[in-house]
Amino acid sequence: MNNLLIDVLDGKKVDRPPVWLMRQAGRYMPEYMEVRRKVTFLELCKNPELAAKVTHQPVDILGVDAAILFSDILIPVEPMGVKLDFDPAPVISNPVRTQKDVDRLTILEPYKDVPFVVETVKLLVKDLNVPLIGFSGAPFTLACYMVEGGGSKNFIEIKRMMHNDYKSFSTLMEKLTISTIKYLQAQIDNGCPVVQIFDTWAGILSPCEYAEMVLPFVNILVDNLKNAHVVYFAKDSATFYKYISNLKCSCIGVDWKIELDEADMQLGTGKFVLQGNMDPVILFTNREKIMNIAKLIVDKGKSLKGHIFNLGHGILPNTPVENVKYLVELIKNGCQ
Amino acid sequence: MNNLLIDVLDGKKVDRPPVWLMRQAGRYMPEYMEVRRKVTFLELCKNPELAAKVTHQPVDILGVDAAILFSDILIPVEPMGVKLDFDPAPVISNPVRTQKDVDRLTILEPYKDVPFVVETVKLLVKDLNVPLIGFSGAPFTLACYMVEGGGSKNFIEIKRMMHNDYKSFSTLMEKLTISTIKYLQAQIDNGCPVVQIFDTWAGILSPCEYAEMVLPFVNILVDNLKNAHVVYFAKDSATFYKYISNLKCSCIGVDWKIELDEADMQLGTGKFVLQGNMDPVILFTNREKIMNIAKLIVDKGKSLKGHIFNLGHGILPNTPVENVKYLVELIKNGCQ
Q: Is the ipTM of this complex over 0.90?
């Protein structure tokens, strides 16, 4: 069993940073596309054998130090009462806009509502030789999708709800927080020693909005998870780090918009293990650049409490697989 | 003549911050739409009488303390040798990808290539009773559009050029920097006492990429402009402020992702007048929220060297006009 990821999260000294890559199972990989051709994206997420298979692929093909459950952040919100489809971007045909819309949403009961996720976790932990990372969207990011009805450019609907109807917004956030606690705890209880919370859309807010209306729910979420390390990843949120510094989790995911040492300083020196932070577009350049930038990141990582090498966001479609393999090898060889 | 904007930029003490709003002339305003219905967007930009008319509208209708030349940041790059259209987003059908593509680009000669811009400025300064702000895109933001061939989600092409073919990238940046100096100086020489440089896409980069490959050109640009105040606005770039702090300009535009006092600290306390920073989406909420948030911003502005009230990005289409009017009145009345 390769336990490097857990060692770093436990605060142990290690010889090199563990490496895994957000969206390491995905469209850039031919073996994934082969599985994907036979089923829709939602079918893939809901089929434990296939979901386990694509979760396993990057461990076998790239040799990363962790697997991350293959799923979509919107999977747990569908049974709460929204109509979800992928086109290929997520579309919610009954967006949540009013108190009535919020009231009709139910709390997720993972063993009843998303048994396939629990099943996938069980299948994976049986034979993986690396830790399995569970994950969910953060309450605010899930709320964005539910209120906007999908992705968004300017996030007018969610911000309008936050400011014009805080009661509906906070009730929605409460329901999502409780559901997310249950969802992540089910993943943990079935074998995930680490869970990552993706707050992809936190960065659309002002520091004040984030600190007052979003972070309190992240705090509740993190405080209520037991028996696992928690990684919190809020994209485009470096200006919120002074608030995030009080979060009771093991690790903060960092995007490429800030250097790791600077991020550490703003989060409270040595308080968190940091994960990141190569721009995924660097994988479209060339080996020399990949090596130079990886080296810089690994060097900055040495001054931290602990460092998990990752990208600053998910691998992009059409990323050259050979560059991804090269990067993983590089980190495993100590950037030699 | 209302000279409040210039007074603040000159470092004078004033009773209230001057207010103008990015994209204050635009689709949200019925009077603009009436002009726009008769011509295409490009025709409007190239017609001095009509461009002057829509530049004037927000001064008359909203009562803002400054006018900003109506144009598009891509207007000066078209005569350099790219085929530009709006659909309604900008599309460049011959994107710049190779050294050969860069070599065929010419340097802008504003009096010959965009005489209509000079003419619009001349028409406006004759009868405006507020300062006219000239503007251009920053070299990097213009390069993004030219290399990507329009807007982009992940900016793979421009980053690939930066890392795989720096010679082409830097030659492109040089040509854009020289062209932008000429373009802005022509606006200044014909009557703009202030110019704003929009670096809309700077925020896609890492701090290292920005500091090494982009900022040097912004420095050259700013250092070569004479006889005007320069405002530099780089969106999503709060993590670059320690580098931006050495820029020799009067004012930095700030988006809503960082508080004004925090921005001031990171830019070097009291070094710059700051402009900003209300999230344009707040104009979709309600009067009470608009007042509360405007008050907070104005209060933070009082601790600065100088403060120009503005949004943190352009006014969005469909923004309720009555809320825009309310905001401008509010700032002019000292948030009473």
A: yes
